[in-house]
DNA sequence: GTTTTTGCACTGACCAGTCAGTACAAATTC
DNA sequence: GAATTTGTACTGACTGGTCAGTGCAAAAAC
């Protein structure tokens, strides 16, 4: 039913157990939060004894940190891939942004629990994994920033654009719209959501009529 | 130091205590999450005995629920006010949306901890206060949806717009951009952030050059 | 003199992390 | 090829600590 947010290779038995634990943890933590989720629950959902959790991970927070690192890694790879694919096709930077929006939606569609959890934790301070999260966030946002910057440099995007702020806004637009889609209007198709966001990106909401 | 997210009137002594508890709770919960925040911490930060917390609120979650309800109430009022003010001035619907973006930013600037906490809890399922939160979210988003709908009806906005999805995207854009601003680029001014978002709304990022 | 707050001791449920022990397959010895 | 050792993965009862919530007498505020 849910997100296989884990390392792919590693054919050992151990790796399979880790997988199951990741998958159990991601949904439970997304639903209840980190502190409200008990290690016993995670073990039970994974169909494993509690001791096994500690055999595989040093602590509850380490399990969570590795989960975060891997999940964001997947997203970043997927965004970068979308941008490169567009470039290969000879598309412009706006097309690349549009492709990245779609890649983001596909990711969230596949791993909604992970996304929920990421958003919930991202701006928290004073947490053990805060630094991990900041590094990993920067990697993801940087992919969007790069495309914006190239667009400005190549003259395709206006020079008045504030790159970091615009990147954050675009990421936020996709994240929140997608989470709302999954939670409150799950009957809508990915294409619908993509079309709505695309329209906003291309200025066909508040823009001067062409 | 932080957000006076509480009922304004109520001159009684009791109300003042409630205020202090709201303020203490909102920052602590934003930083650590609901479960990781203890009632003792809240009491200590508020400079109040633990018994007082229970004299004023039935339980920890009731305290939190009332916090949520009131905070979103403030935001909703502020958004509605911005839209009406624009209408009074004779501005168009795009102007109203722009004014609402600014109102949202002002709110987040004033109550960053509350906003952080709201975003972290919004898409969680299976929580005691989930229903409270959904009602209250709908009120806030509805304000944006109303303006979009009026804009479409009056011909100022394109009919192809998907109102609920676009509203969610706009709200998300503001929330995430603002939280990023507060957390990662606090040196930027509100006007900078507003300008960046305004540009996106008005299609001067990916839009066809006029 | 009523309402609100304080301070503090207490309870009982809950939970992260530990540890002695089991299962079992593959390697090693005889 | 049977007997023994080794390494790896896993188990679940147990422990020490934490925390929401209670109870209450005395003080303070109004």
Short description:
Chain A has 210 residues and is an all-alpha fold.
Q: Structural class given helices, strands, pairing of chain A?
A: mainly alpha
User: Which two chains share the most extensive interface?
Assistant: A-B, 61 and 61 residues
Kindly give the count of domains of chain A. Answer: 1
> Count of helices of chain A?
9
Shape-level CATH architecture of chain A: Orthogonal Bundle
For this structure, the CATH topology of chain A is Tetracycline Repressor, domain 2
- What is the N-to-C order of secondary-structure elements of chain A (H for helix, E for strand)? HHHHHHHHH
For the largest beta-sheet of chain A, the strand count, sense and barrel status come to:
none
Helix coverage percent of chain A:
over 70%
End-to-end distance of chain A: 45 Å
Overall outline of chain A: elongated
Strand tally of chain A, please?
0
Residue stretches of chain A low in confidence (pLDDT < 50, at least 5 long) are: 1-11
CATH homologous superfamily of chain A, by name?
A: Tetracycline Repressor, domain 2
What would you report as the Rg of chain A, rounded to the nearest angstrom?
A: 19 Å
**What's the CATH class label of chain A?**
Mainly Alpha
How would you describe the oligomerization state of the chains in this entry?
homodimer
Q: Which band does the percent of strand residues of chain A land in?
A: under 5%
Q: Averaging pLDDT over every residue of chain A, what do you get?
A: 88
Summary keywords:
elongated, Tetracycline Repressor, domain 2, disordered N terminus, 72% helix, 9 helices, DNA-binding, homodimer, 210 residues, mainly alpha, 0% strand
